[in-house]
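Thread title: Can someone regenerate the structure for this chain?

I was given the following input by a collaborator and told the matching structure tokens would be attached. They weren't. Posting the sequence so someone can regenerate them.
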Amino acid sequence: MKRWNGLRSAPPVGISIDIIPSQERILACKGRAAELLEDEISARPPGWTPKWCEALISEVAAVLARGELPGAGISAVEVPRFVHGQSQGICDVFGASVEAQPDGNFYVHPVDPGEVASRRLVRTPVTRSRYWGAVEWIRYARRAARGRVEFRNPVMTGPFDTANYLLGTTRLLEWTYSEPEILHWLLDEVTRTIIGMLGALREAAGGTLHGEDLFCVRNIYCLCSECRSLVSAEIFAEYEAPYLRRIGDAVGPYAIHSCGSWERTVRCSLLDSNLRAMNGQVRENDLHELCRHVGGRLVLSIGPSRDVHERYTWPDTKSFLEYVLQTVPPDQAVEIQVAETDVPLYEELCGRIRGKGAR
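Best answer:
Regenerated them for you:
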């Protein structure tokens, strides 16, 4: 069960496991978590609500519970999404209205395309953005815990996905052909904002951020790159890859998360020396092809597909684990999550498929 520092240039080989603690274990750790937050009351900022404290206790309890288990998972606090409006929250920087939904999700009302075309977007300072709540919450949590916890970056979209929120998907895809100069201008604006926000988040966290979607790879942040599954390799290479590379050059090594199929973008992604890991669901992709394209140069962070048609899901955990163990070559770095109750199953399958003592 390998731990890997994502700031290093070469990934490890084999399969690393993040063991997910049970809810019973996490609940048992809540009392200890509350005791660790000695300065919680004095750390409360303006705008604090009891939900902030509840989320912090739950997150610290999860960190403590994970520390009781033998896996290689990242022991870091996740930023609760309600404090920053999920990934959509940053869109208000560009004048978009971000509306909270009854189910806890957020919806972006696209901006006026005329304002984008004339390059006259109404900008809001990042410190007044809904998304700035993530910076405030990390500062609060770090003070409350006296610096004894580390943090994952809040869920954040890359430039192309953020432009998708701001324009709407149809207009975004149309503009890749009809308005390339304007779209590149917008992507440049978004990229500079993301770079600044990541810097503020990292500073609030004490200098280290771990990836929101990663399991075992440490010290690199993670960006959502969902729309790569909608476009050709050529469109990705022109409108997403250069801006991700700029963010990596400015902020340091990173990972991407993408639902859907992304085999066709892997070759272009491998040209970016800042990219260290790719996270996504396995049934929307061909894991064998991903491993062939990557050739051990990146960590593949793989989960079972969910919230899709049953043809893309697994009938049970055993089927998913068997597929991963049978498909991943020995020289490819892969990280997966295994529930603590499924550890005996994983060890039995691993020994049978990959040999005694293998991981």
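The two ends are 6 Å apart (CA to CA).
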